[in-house]
Amino acid sequence: MNILFLTLSQIISDISQRGIYPDLLRKFAGEGHSVFIVCPFERRLKKETCLSKNGNVHTLGVKTLNITKSDIIEKGIGTILIEYQYRKALRKYLSDIQFDLVMYSTPPITFNKVIRSLKKKTGSKSYLLLKDIFPQNAVDMGMLSIHSPLYWFFRKKEKTLYLLSDHIGCMSQANVDYILEHNFFVPKERVEVCPNAIEIQQSDKFTDKKIILSKYGISTKATIFACVGNVGKPQGIDFLIEVLNSNKNRTDAYFLIIGEGTEYNKLNNWLNKVKPNNAKLISNLPKKECDVLIAASDIGLIFLDHRFTVPNYPSRLLTYLENKMPVLMATDTCSDIGKIAEENGYGIWVESNDLEKFDSKLNYLISNKELFMTMGEKGYQYLIDNFTVETSYKIIMSHFK
User: Fold this and answer.
1) Are residues 13 and 94 in the same domain?
2) What SS3 string covers 264-278?
3) Strands 167-170 and 125-130, how do they pair?
4) What is the pTM of this model?
5) Quick one: which of 144, 172, 173 has its CA closest to 158?
6) Alpha-carbon distance 129 to 149, whole Å?
7) Among residues 164, 194, 224, which one ends one of the domains?
């Protein structure tokens, strides 16, 4: 088949990098499909729109405004403009291709005209990989009001996107339930669980982790808690700072945060002011070095703001499970990521405004290191059984029998 993937993710032409989107697209390409990727060349990259090819993978990079890691004004304008920019690039570079399947992920929710025109022209099926429920998540974070014209503008876009989608793949059952409950117009049979998934690779777990930890000046005697990924408002950085402050004098726990985002400066300023000896924030770390550093850590951390009323399922979980790490999660009460982890024995959950309970669970993990291996193995097996690209590929392709 000819498969078009619309995304805001930065994906290079050979899609050799690791991640939930490159891994899935490599699977499609490996099965013999022709894959066409449309992704942004954000303003900061200083690149012009162009089409590249590597085997049966074609990448159309489209010049856009900065729509990630930018202020809310440029992000908002860029998100609105991107539909026009993608349509223009598609007409210029890929107008002769008959697509069988159009896939796209949220964010954004503004691909409606692109999807509608492609479906009308080619008769293609459309599949939404739902990774973000916007604009409600912005309302939860206090960034939008449900009474504002901007909210209703984006809400209308969201509804249209759901109606245009022949199938909606959600990250978990909680996401499925939410979509059906709050969007009565969406037929139940269109919505299914199609989880975040990766191509599993052998973990480079260090038998002597002192080598890599010493390189970064990290304690080799403490239990290493790693928090990897975006450092933004959705990740509940205020609660993370509370956790760091509560445990700043410990010598048996070390907190390693790797990532960037809108709240990076806030976290970095606190660290520079307090100067705890058991915490480090690292940005701009090459992917391979990041993977090695995670492999040298002991326990994965996931934080989500407690105000969320929409379920989330951060893909960083898969990195921890691949490295056979137990996971300590502090999230909202509507996400089911913690419930699933506890039911399957690879993680522990607390609500992300309960510092006392979080510290209690942290103490429990540090005091029961014999559980590390057992919980890690359970998580790795759950990854194999549920979160591989083979699983997601089969779910999507089941609609083409």
Assistant:
1) yes
2) HHHHHHHHHHHCCCC
3) parallel
4) 0.91
5) 144
6) 27
7) 194
